[in-house]
Amino acid sequence: MMTKILNGELTFTSLKPLDLSTCSKEEIKLYFENSYDLNESLFTALKEESVFYKCPDRLRLPLIFYFAHTATVYVNKLLLASFIKSRVNFEFETMFETGVDEMSWDDTENYRMGGSFEWPSLDQVVKYRQKVRNLILDQIDDTPLTLPITAESSWWGLVMGMEHERIHLETSSVLIRQLPIHLVSKPEGWTYGPVKSGSSATENSLISVETHDITIGKPKNFPSYGWDNEYGQAEIHVPPFKASKYLVTNGEFLGFVRSGGYRCKKYWSNEGWKWREFKQANHPVFWVCNNGCVGGCGGDLANWSHCHIKDVSEKILKKDDNNSQSVDTEYRLRLMFDLVNLPIDWPVEVNYHEAKAFCCWKGEGFRLPTEAEHNVMRGKQRPISDGTACDIIYGDKIEANLNLQYGSSTPVNLYPSNEMGFHDAFGNVWTWLEDHFNGLCGFSTHWLYDDFSSPCFDGHHNMILGGSWISTGDEASRFARFGFRRHFFQHLGFRLVQTIDQPREGRVTLPARVVNTPVFVLGKGVTANSGCLSDTYRVEAVPTTNLNYCYEGENSLVGILELEFGFRDSGIAVLAAMCGEYTRDMNITTDTALHLGAGTGRGAFELSKVFYRVLGVEPVGRYVDASLRLKEERNLKFSAPNNNSASEINLGDYDANPERITFKQLTWISNEVDSHDLVLVTHLDRVQNPKAWLMRVWEITKPNGIAVVGSLSGEWTQEKIQPMLGERMTCVLGEDAEYRCPSGRRTAVVTVWRRQ
User: Fold this and answer.
1) In Å, how far from its chain's centre is CA 714?
2) Cα 658 to chain centroid, rounded
3) Residue 368 above 80 pLDDT?
4) For labelling, which of 14, 284, 418, 485 has a CA lying 20 to 30 Å from the CA of 599?
5) Burial class (CB in 10 A: 0-12, 13-18, 19+), 144
6) Bridging pattern class, strands 661-665 and 520-521
7) In a 10 Å sphere around its CB, with 0-12 CB exposed, 13-18 middle and 19+ buried, how is residue 417 labelled?
8) Is the pLDDT confidence value at 321 over 50?
9) pTM score, two decimals?
10) What percent of the chain is predicted at pLDDT more than 90?
11) pLDDT tens by residue, 694-740
C-alpha cells in the first residue's frame, strides 16, 4: 500500500455531513479531516509512484492531477471567500485547478498542458496537501463561527471544498477502476459487498404507480450544503407509469449482450451507435472477457486491453473471498481492485447509450425514468420542515448502499424495498434519467463557483439521481441533482419504466424536461442536443438556464458584431481608447492587458494598439469563434439569418496588431489568466453572476495596475461595484463616456480602480 501519501489516517468510513444550523468547530474539523482522509486513502491502492502518472482514460489527466486537485480548490475558493488570506503555492493552484471535460467520446487525447508536460513529484504534492490541511485546521481554530452557516458566510467556501472533495471520491474511484488491474491492490479495510442475498433477483417485475403531483427543489434556508442546481423549484404533474422494482441487473443485461445487442444497430440511437462503433464496445466497460477488446486508457497505456482473463487469474477472487454464490459466465466483473465471476444480481453499470439500447431491446414502450418519476419512486419522504432529519444522509442507520458501507455494488435485493415496492431508490449505483440537466425555476449561481453546474445545461448532459455506494455527504442527499455526458461512465446504472395507458394515436406525454436551446461549441459548431427520446414521446422543451448559452444564437452574433464594428466610435471602441489614455495619464506599464467580456474582439484589437500582449476572455463560444476567425483571416463576412445581404469586417480598417492577441473561451477567471497591467471589464450586463467575475479582479491586476469597468447600460456604478471588488481595489476615477449605437448616441458609466 502507498501509505506514505497519507497526511492523516487510513479510513473508508464516512461521517455524516454537517448540519449547518448546529455544527461546532470540532464537528467541522472532524468532517474536514474525514473528507481529506477518505480521498487520500483511496489513492493508497496505487501500487507504486509511477501509477500516479498514468492515464486510466485517454480523455482524462494523469491521476496525480486528481490527487492534488481537491487541495488546490480549497485554496482557490477559500481565498475568494476571505477564509484564508494568502496562497500556499500559486504554481500548483494553477496547474491543478482545472481538469478536462471532453465534449465527446471521439475527442483527441487531451492533457490540456501537453502530453509531455512534466508534473511535480509525488513527494511535492504530498507536502502541498499537508500544508493545505494544516492551514485550514489553523483557520478553523482562528475564524469566528456564526451559525447558521449560510451561502453568504465565509465558512460556506470551506463546506464547498469538503463536498467537492467527496465528489472526487466518485471521479477518482472510476478512474482507478479503469487502470490495468496489476497496477492496484486492495487497501486494508476495503470491503466488497456480498454477491448474493438469499433468493436470486431474477424476476424484475414492473410496479404500477398512480398519478402524482410533486414539487422538486431545495429551500434556500435548508441547513445543509447544496450545489447551485439543487435550489429553485419545479412543480410537476406525473402521469401513471410502471417501473421495475429492481435496478436492471448484470444477469438481465447479459441476455442483451448474448443476443447480439451490441451488434444490432436498430436498438441504438444515432448518437449511441456512433459511440458504439467508435469505441468498438462489445459489453459494459467494467465487464471483462477473454477477447482482447479495445481499451480506453491513455498515454503509455493506450494499447492496454483489460479483456485478458487468463493473464490476471491471480486477481480473480476465490470462493472464500465472498464469491461462492456467483455464476461462472464468459465474463468477469472488474471491481475496484479485483475481478469476480459476474455477480448476476448486482446492478449493471453502463452509460446512457447502452441503457437506452437495452430499453429498445426489451420492447416497445420501455424507457428510462424521468426526474419527476424518480422522485415519486422514492416513496413518502419526511417533510422538509423536519430539517436535516428528513434527508437519508443524516440517518444513524442508512438502509441503502450509500456512504461507503461497502466498496462495491450489492445485490439489488439486499436492502428492503420502500413502501411502494422499489429497491435501491437511493444508492447502489446512480440511475440514468431521460431529462436533460438544467436548472430549476429560480436558478442562480453562487459567486464562489459560478460555473459548477451551468456549463452542463447544454442539452448534452442527462440527469443522474440516487447516488452510488461511494456517494457520501451532499452527493447522497435527497436533494442532489447531477448531470453527465451520455457517453460517460460512472458507478451508474438504470431502471426500466413504461408509461401506462399509452394513446393509440398521438404521442405519449412524459414529465421530462429537455433543453431546446441550440448551443454553439467552439471548434464544433451547433450539434444536436435532442438526446435519445423517440418521436413517440412529448416532453417539456425548455430553454437553458445558463445565461451564456442564450447568447449563442446567430442573431446574437450579428447584433454584437454590428455593435462592436458597425461604428468607429462604438461603445467598446470608446472604452478601449479611454484605457489607452488612462495608462498614459497614470504612468501604467503597457506590457499586458486583459479584456474580460471580449465579445467578438473589437476591444482587444483596439487594446493591441497600446499593449504588447492582450488576452481576450469571453464565455460565449460563438463570439470567441468570430474573434478567432477575424484574427486569423483578417476579415469576416456575416449576415442576419434569412437575410441575403452580407456585411463584411476588414481588420485592416482598424490599424490593430492581431499578432499580439490571444483569445480564450473561459466561463470564469481561472488562475491561468495570470495578472495584467490593465484589466478591462465590459460584460457585467450579460453574465450570470457579476460578483464571480469581479471578486478576482484584484488578483489579476498587477500591483499599481488598474482595472477599468465599463457599463454600457449605466447600471454598474462605483457604489455597486465596490463591495464586489473588495478592499484591495480603490476607485481613482469615475466618468461618463458617450458612444454611438443604432438608436443614436448613448452614455456609458466608466470607473477606474487601482490595486493597492
Assistant:
1) 34
2) 34
3) yes
4) 485
5) exposed
6) unpaired
7) middle
8) no
9) 0.95
10) 81
11) 999 999 999 999 999 999 888 999 999 999 998 899 999 999 888 87
